[in-house]
Amino acid sequence: MTAEALSPELETIVANATAAAPAFAATSPKTRAQALVAVADALENAKASLVEIAMRETGLTEARLNGEVTRTAVQLRLFADTLVDGSYLDARIDYADPEFALGVRPDIRRTHIPVGPVINFSASNFPFAFSVMGGDSAAILAAGCPLIVKAHSGHPDLSDATAEVASAALTAAGMPAGTFQLIHGREAGVAVLKDPRVKAGAFTGSIGVGRLLADIAASRPAPIPFYGELGSVNPVFITADAIAERAADIASGYLVSVSGSAGQLCTKPGFAFIPTDSELPAAIQAAAGELPEHRLLDPRIARSFEERRQAIVSAPGVRPVIEGGIRFDEAGHGWATPTIVAVSLEDFRASKEALVEEAFGPLSILVETPAGTDLAALIPEFYEGNLTGTLHLSTIEGTGETANAAELRTLVDAISQQVGRVLFNGWSTGVAVTPAQQHGGPWPATTNDTSTSVGSSAIKRFLRPVAYQNAPAAFLPETLRDANPLGVPQAIAPAGESKTWGSAAQG
């Protein structure tokens, strides 16, 4: 694949990002941290006007969008503190050692540097937290990489307004021209992704589009890393004892998780495995009451959900627990009420092709499993990879001392092989923005299951390691100098250490 000539507008944008890369990479971590905080403050100051635009373009509620602006600001501030801390650089210093176990060892020092300009494709379902200035954008800027954002077509006005706020804040904070730029249109995004001056890509969206973009990134003459979050059905396993102990609580929590934001969340529980003949379906019906309808994000998503819903409810053996439905208004927008269906494990297996694919919207499937079913064996049978897996246990089962403890441990181990986050007695929707968070998983949940798009480790996607051997101090990055002017954590291997290697294992 050869790079195509860019339009004059895109050429200017990519050239600006390329020119900004050295200067932006050279900014100190604290300077970049202050810029991120400035963007966070600016977004919160503009919250009212931004949320008004977002409500019009997405149909999401004011409360949800207000919370999302706050989350976006928190993400920026988390990365600011991550920069000041400095441990993300993983600075390592091996001092020269003439008595090294394998011969003379040179002075070797390793750290991480920005990869260069990055393009980020915005998400539709999080118009703030995974869009123009969302988590991926925050991580890219924190890493010191010039950012080109491809706006999502579902909220173009909001994208422009957010970009204006962020750009003004970055400029006022002294960041180089070309540090942050916005483009519109899928073709423009693809063209920029193909350009050899762009060094990485990020995306949150559908499996089909994500695979297309990932393949483009991989098939370039010089392939680049591409971090996509694509699809997940987030299986839930609920034990009989858990249902007997708190059926009503589980039912209400499940409904909230499935119906929140009209089910348009990558962490929505798409399947719940429950014992055959349990009381949970009845508890769900009792908890449902009058569920309000919710507008889906755009007509395309609504039509796709209608097709998936119809395929699921018409599959053999599927029966409604909560019928739900979708209607379309004169503008083509779809308004949905939650659909919960149940199916036996036997019928689920028979209709796997119709049922197993993600339904992006307020729909979930209860799979009724007979007593004695090996639940751990179901995971590789039905799922490739997911963002989350959840296990609901009774209070006694949670102690790990019940008769089925070994079976549950096996199930937890099996879940952990297929997901990035394992939850107990909770619900997968609502991803805490915190340093230890893992938001990623095996394909097709993400294109790279060793990374995360939430949490402070997300910055590592846009850095690459470099080692310096026998470098004079004047030419070392400040993070690797003995004086350590930035005060970052340094892992130091002193001379003579190699002669004691292996002793720790004997202690």
TrEMBL record:
It comes from the Bacteria. InterPro entries: Ald_DH/histidinol_DH, Ald_DH_N, Aldehyde_DH_dom, Aldehyde_DH_Superfamily, ALDH_KGSADH. Keywords: Oxidoreductase. Residues 7-368 form the Aldehyde dehydrogenase domain. It holds the Pfam family Aldedh. GO terms for molecular function: oxidoreductase activity, acting on the aldehyde or oxo group of donors, NAD or NADP as acceptor. This is Aldehyde dehydrogenase (NADP(+)). It comes from Leucobacter viscericola.
